[in-house]
Fold each of these.
Amino acid sequence: MGPRFQTHHVYVYKYVASAETLYVRGSSGQNAGVGMTTRAHLSVAWERNGEQLVRLQLFGTRFQSTAEQKPETRNKPSAMFGSSSSKALQQPIFFLWRRGKVDGIYVNNEEPFEIVNLKRGLISLFQLQPIVGETIESDIAGECKVTYRMKRNRVRKLRDVKSCTNRETAFPATNKVLGTEWHGTGIIAATVEQDLIKLVAAEEQHNITVNIQTTAGTRVLSRQRMKLMDSTPGPEPTQEFSVDRAIAAIAPGYTARFLGAEKSPSHSKMHRSARLMVQSVRKRMEPDNLGKSASTRSFISLLRVLRHSSQKDMLKLLQKEPEKTLLQLIDVMSAAQTDASRLALLSFLDFSKANKAEAYERFLYGCAFATRPSPELLQNLMDRLDGQIASAETRQTVIIVIGALMGKLCQAGQCQLPVVREAWKRLLAGSDTNNSDTEIQTHLLALKNTFLPETVHIFTKHAELGPGATSAIAISGLQGFPSEFITHEVNSAMNRIYHQSNQIYEKTVRVAAAERILTGNPSEAEVRNILLSLHSLTPEMAKFILARVEDLLRVGHPNSNIIQEVLKDHRVHNYEQFARSGSSSSFSGFMSKMEGVTSTYNLNILYSGSGILRKSNMDIFIFSHGSSLHATQVSIEAQGLEGLIAGTPDEGEEDLETMASMSPILFDLQLRPITFFNGYADLVTKMWSATGEPTSAVKGSILLIDHSQLIWLQFGVPFGVNLLGALSIDISGSMDVSLWDRQSKTIVCNKGAVVLSSVGSMVLGRLKVHSEHILSTEARLDFTTTVQFTSYPFLVCMQMEKDTFPFREEQQQSERLEGGYSWNARRAREFNITGSEFPLHQDNSMMCNIMYDVEEENWY
């Protein structure tokens, strides 16, 4: 029949509930949180056809810190809510109950939301239906999927807390590697004797972690226990015909509500002054501190404050900020992604003036890495593109960022928005073959950032048409797609490019086409033809193709089975084919292996026949939760330098202009390429004026992880989650050619700091419970290639080193009662991870098993 109460009785239950934050790692005897004890008196106020209107009233309510059981941490309701609100705790609440199912509640309209939600948490324990199996039912967290199990007088209910509808989650991550994982459990066990609930115990736990570092996150535990203590004679139920009339008769002013929790109406809260916050972190925001943990932590702290600041206040900050730290402030405001920050930045930055070109770039890259992309931001950039832009480089960056924003909006299911469709039309028009090569290349880079399958045929067309730089960009765009998007037409085009069926291509383009074939879904014939063509290639190109094939075999690439099958043919696999001289190379290895996360590196270096670097790609990939993330790529390309050392250009490259450039990719986003020099005259000028300092490709702080969530605990208290991950980075590179020493030197320096801040918070009346888990580290990775081309074969020295770097973990918890007590706890540990040298050539492959030596690891 199901649980029910007898009329003319008052049932007295003792109710104890608590919610506490937990340490992510390790355990402590003390956890910040709040507990509640009370006596609940329940009686039947109306009954008809098995349906009961139950009256519930609380007495003797007390609140208690879960961290410290001291007299000063035990609080009367008046200390928690104020004298007027605390009286509402004793006001009765009614719920409609039929065979253990709660169909709704009736609440006094004047009762504060927080008080009502606590009572909702108690009423949710009476949601005990006499069924077995799955069903959907309401509780404080909304409509939830539950599974009932019964054994004699015991009922066990499993709540699928992730299915509950009453929750709030911010914009999802565009890549799962930078996303979060939510694990939640909810269990209710009850004893029911003769249709009377004697005991109910409930427990739920939520664990929200960061995918890229599963030890970072926040946890919360909530418990409830209700036990029948007594039964005494009670009042006579009203005899009204309907429940509505019954409520009107016994509780005027009460209205029907759902059992799901209601969020308190928004009200003004005091937030820390943005001006004072900027002053406190300004020193750590100086350019020399970029790439350090202190700078990144300041970025996150200031970001949280700016998200509550007005447009007027932020504009004043921009106008008064010293030049030395202005760019870093722009980084933070760009990452805030509120309407106020967006409008303040657009008011401050005038693209028609050339005096703040670097500030424009920092703002635009902040837009490109938006974790909460908005159509309004895309429209703003489109409007700026229509207006006057003083710098050609800034205009190129605007176009590239429009592609990134458009792609993110499409991933969020907003491809049909008018502004997104307009952006698509513009990018298509810009990539038309009637435009200049520079215009086409810029728009292809923008299309590359969209990751839309509709771009595949566009890239394929431009890959074949050229010229070389355009073809290389187009093929790199194709590399970003999984094999299922690479059709027969694409593969045919790549084969025509590699084998030069219709025209002559630069060898960097041919190598890129071969890479797309070998890592896609090649047939045995395609692999065989590539290997049989080695004898017709220049020595360095042949050496590179062979090294790439061997690297795919060594790392066990999915296509290695096809390659191995082809190598069974002795016409392909023989000494003449595989004994290739040259210094070009391709090598992949592991940077780190952790639980759930793996990172790899890949180095491809192609030299010209004269011994000068033609192209190098340094890539780092991160794999987690079945997804991959192209963390970084620094591509350095040089051409037309053979004349400087009286060398002979390779086939198809006789007329190339002297040029060297660097093209960066950062977290899947293609950034604007940087030109070292363009033309012989420019080369000579920069050689004489060179300072020896590398050219910066990417510099600043960006927000990578941005997760907000509100979880309603069955206790009746909301648990807020805010996970932020930021990167402070400085990627630079240089290429020097010494005519006197007949030597070239290429340097790529990656310096960065990462901070993951995971905050969990609960607010109940005047009590604020806060927990924060912080992981921070900073590292430097240098890659240097030195080539002596005094003779052939020329001497090559390649080095990739990671310095010893610090790792710090902090966990903090606090309780603070306004006008009352406060409690804080903190624990931390630090250790160093020793530096490493990474193998860059297959002859040193046994070095791939990289060990991290922990020098110190202690909590304090």
Amino acid sequence: MTHEEHHAAKTLGIGKAIAVLTSGGDAQGMNAAVRAVVRVGIFTGARVFFVHEGYQGLVDGGDQIREATWESVSMMLQLGGTVIGSARCKDFRDREGRLRAAHNLVKHGITNLCVIGGDGSLTGADTFRSEWSDLLNDLQKAGKITAEEATKSSYLNIVGLVGSIDNDFCGTDMTIGTDSALHRIIEIVDAITTTAQSHQRTFVLEVMGRHCGYLALVTSLSCGADWVFIPECPPDDDWEEHLCRRLSETRTRGSRLNIIIVAEGAIDKNGKPITSEDIKNLVVKRLGYDTRVTVLGHVQRGGTPSAFDRILGSRMGVEAVMALLEGTPDTPACVVSLSGNQAVRLPLMECVQVTKDVTTAMNDRKFDEAMKLRGRSFMNNWEVYKLLAHVRPPVSKGSTHTVAVMNVGAPAAGMNAAVRSTVRIGLIQGNRVLVVHDGFEGLARGQIEEAGWSYVGGWTGQGGSKLGTKRTLPKKSFEQISANITKFNIQGLVIIGGFEAYTGGLELMEGRKQFDELCIPFVVIPATVSNNVPGSDFSVGADTALNTICTTCDRIKQSAAGTKRRVFIIETMGGYCGYLATMAGLAAGADAAYIFEEPFTIRDLQANVEHLVQKMKTTVKRGLVLRNEKCNENYTTDFIFNLYSEEGKGIFDSRKNVLGHMQQGGSPTPFDRNFATKMGAKAMNWMSGKIKESYRNGRIFANTPDSGCVLGMRKRALVFQPVTELKDQTDFEHRIPKEQWWLKLRPILKILAKYEIDLDTSEHAHLEHITRKRSGETSI
């Protein structure tokens, strides 16, 4: 990358103006996107304008269109909803309204529009763009704008960001607000579960989603619901019988509650609505269970955005500004979106078209078609739900295999969800499933028992590790481990854990040379708050820890906002891995995040102090600095605190906070529950295949590199990678992968904190086409 290109990002926006508006239903995380658009726009030298009250403000003009400053978006990252307001706008639907809107934009010299909203809002934006030159001609004829103004504003660039809690927009994995809505729903489901257990009740929960069942589907996966009704896949005609049978079976297996999730747009095969009241009446009439209905409503739109939505909003905002400023009259209006963890740009109208195709398919009762159009991630969720919801483990056909499941390393939220789905999928496949307590130590000591279906009941939402977990590695107890593998006839191992699970896997591979008993397939599911397992972009538990840190930072920022002139230094976990510090820095709006992967010197610390001194002269009189626990052995948290205290004398005072083990606890977030559930299911499916492959002369013998894998999420897909192949990608001394994808996000953190740095634009998303996404790898 040349220096000229680097410099280009900082001058890209000079002489240009960008307007940002939020339209349609609000969604948590919209503010993060607005903040990023404003700050990155200003960073590139552009002028940025707020349009208040959505399209209505565009039509009305006047003081509804106001120039934004750096400080005007401060403290809005943690607020739900949209600070600049949103309204449903009739005027913009008429050409007359759009004419007024065009007039207002031309008068402000704005030719770049960033629209944050649902598919309706984005379609409106596209219409506006296609009519632009006609609108200008009319305005010029009417003498409302001069020929010179018309030439200056000859074309309009449009970029859309999808903000919608329903996740109903095709082409995007996650829309802004979806994750936060799931947080709200799960908080309520968890609360309801406790009261339902006390009274042995059945609860019917209705969640939002008129045309899209995403929230309902992921909720049911995340809470282990008995049944889910979604518009895309209506139940079979005899569903009433089937539902009642399922509920009573769950009860006879010892469960004290039933949970049924209904999307508000649920229908039967004939397109007739299925309401939560219908379901309640059915259960009461046929089974006589004490049944309650809870309709969640607007709660789902409220509350503070989750860490995921803040990072998503911020990343999308940055990408939107780049897409606008690089736009030409020939580039189509695009949507900035996330696929896996990659930012992508997609043609706006292609996405809108596919989204419309889903509705058409549903109206024509072509439900299979609708499911396919929703994309692979949606289909995968549905497949896993269908597997896990069936209570009757099948009568085993042919030989039964024995698979053991264990936790290794430090506790991480979501471990139990992974154990639950591994055990249940194993039982469904007709296998015998054993659980091992206390990691490799328990495997050596024989702390092993058989798990039935209800052994893991209700585990999805529980934090920590129910099986018990230890950091001990297997090497020194190979003899006892081999003896127990034989004694319990273990034919496969699912190891759920952190870096030690991976190094333990490598030791098992090594041990195969001496011990034949270790020649059994094993798979590692990464689960650690540190997110430092090679072979996976994410690990189970990291999202929960991130949200915990975020919540704490929000509270600390509030305290600092009250006292003024105060800088907080917060130490996060993660070992040598700077993932938590960096991502929490992005999500909480930190001024700096010190990590091991990006070495820093005393000059950098000095620059940070100077930066905060300057910041105290503005209206934003507070600072937040994150430090990863092992980022530097000499520049400790105490050292940095002392340095800041000394240098900030008379300008600001400093406080320090070590977050510690609270980062390992807590109830898992919806992302971690869902991710863990899918990983468990995928690992067990692979395991069954591998055991069959390795079956020779009446016994299992697996000695190939691909019989010992890490299951990881890479960019857009879940992939199995032999542990031995990952060796070269690992820095064993510091227990981190040599290459980490999230380091590319660090410049965004610095720009949003007002550092004059080079934004490396080489990582840019290029325009892709939506149809390409459907073939090839399996996405999660």
